[in-house]
Amino acid sequence: MGIKKLGAGKAKDLVELQAKYLKWGTDIFAPHIAKKFNSIIQQRFPYDWTTSLAIPLFKSGDVNNPSNYRTVMINLLFAKLFGNMINHKINKWAEKSDKRAKGQAGFRPKHSTVDHGITLGTSLEKSGSKKRKPFIAL
Questions:
Q1: Helix, strand or coil for residue 17?
Q2: Does residue 133 carry a pLDDT above 60?
Q3: Over the stretch 71-129, which tens digit does the pLDDT of each residue have?
Q4: Phi, psi of 24 (to 5 degrees)
Q5: What DSSP string describes 53-119?
Q6: Residue 135 has what pLDDT?
Q7: Which three-class secondary structure state does DSSP give residue 16?
Q8: Which long-range contacts (CB under 8 A, 24 or more apart) does 30-36 make?
Q9: Which of 10, 52, 60, 81 is the most buried (most CB within 10 A)?
Q10: How far apart are CA 19 and CA 12, in angstroms?
Q11: Which helix H or strand E contains 126, and what residues bound it?
Q12: Which has the closest alpha carbon to 50: 58, 38, 40?
């Protein structure tokens, strides 16, 4: 399931691996990846999986203004896959066990932090305070 959810673009990870190769060979690779991930859970997370490459991408405007860039992080594909799988397991457990705060939206399926931000901004506006500056730019 985790492999199938990986993007199918041409982006490469830090060692030039593309997700499409894992997707093509899911039936062959999945059992081996699962075995490796289970071994990691029993032992420890590989140190080299903690490495990322930050690449600033220019959006528009003045090239000398840092706010005109967005950062893309490039990680190892297996580290991303492992993180996605752990996140899925934790989310599933937290939802099933009712371990989330009722108002929590971040990293929660079918919930949006943007919705909470808009609600909060609307509440501030309705409170009548004219001196507050909006803190959310959409």
A1: coil
A2: no
A3: 998 999 999 999 888 888 888 898 889 887 777 777 677 777 777 778 778 888 888 75
A4: -60, -35
A5: EEEEEE-SS-TT-GGGEEEEEE--HHHHHHHHHHHHHHHHHHHHTT-S-TT--TT-TT--HHHHHHH
A6: 53
A7: coil
A8: 30/3, 33/3, 33/78, 33/81, 36/78
A9: 81
A10: 8
A11: helix 113-126
A12: 40
Can you give the pLDDT at residue 134? 54
Residue 43 and residue 35 in contact, taking contact as beta carbons nearer than 8 Å: no
Q: What is the mean pLDDT of residues 127-136?
A: 60
pTM: 0.67
SS3 (DSSP) at 47: helix
Please report, for residues 49, 75, 91, 102, 113, the alpha-carbon distance to residue 109 in angstroms, rounded to integers and kept in the order given. Answer: 26, 23, 8, 13, 11
Q: For residues 121 and 84, give the distance between their C-alpha atoms in angstroms, rounded to a whole number.
A: 31
Point out which residues pair with 111 in neighbouring strands.
none
Tell me how far apart the alpha carbons of residues 55 and 74 are, in angstroms, rounded to a whole number: 8
How many Å from the N-terminal Cα to the C-terminal Cα in the chain? 33
